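Posting this for the archive.
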Amino acid sequence: MTQPVTDHATAVAVVREAIECIAPDIDASSLPVDVDMRIEAELDSMDFMAVLSEIKERTGVDIPESDVARVATIDGCAARLVEQLTGSTTGT
């Protein structure tokens, strides 16, 4: 199942949904977008990789382990999705 992602706000929503899918006890809507989600949501490395896998399932975008530092924040992850899916960069 892939969700169309055409803008930053939609990408942020997809990332938040993926976090809540993997860690249902987390209210992802309350997580700051500019802070490392692994720390804020208390995700261990396996959970974080599961979030990235869930994002891939939802969007079709594969985020490799080499991009982990770039996508550690919700904003960074959303920007990466928009860039990959639309070919444009976003200002965060």
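The CA atoms of residues 69 and 76 lie 9 Å apart. The mean pLDDT is 91.
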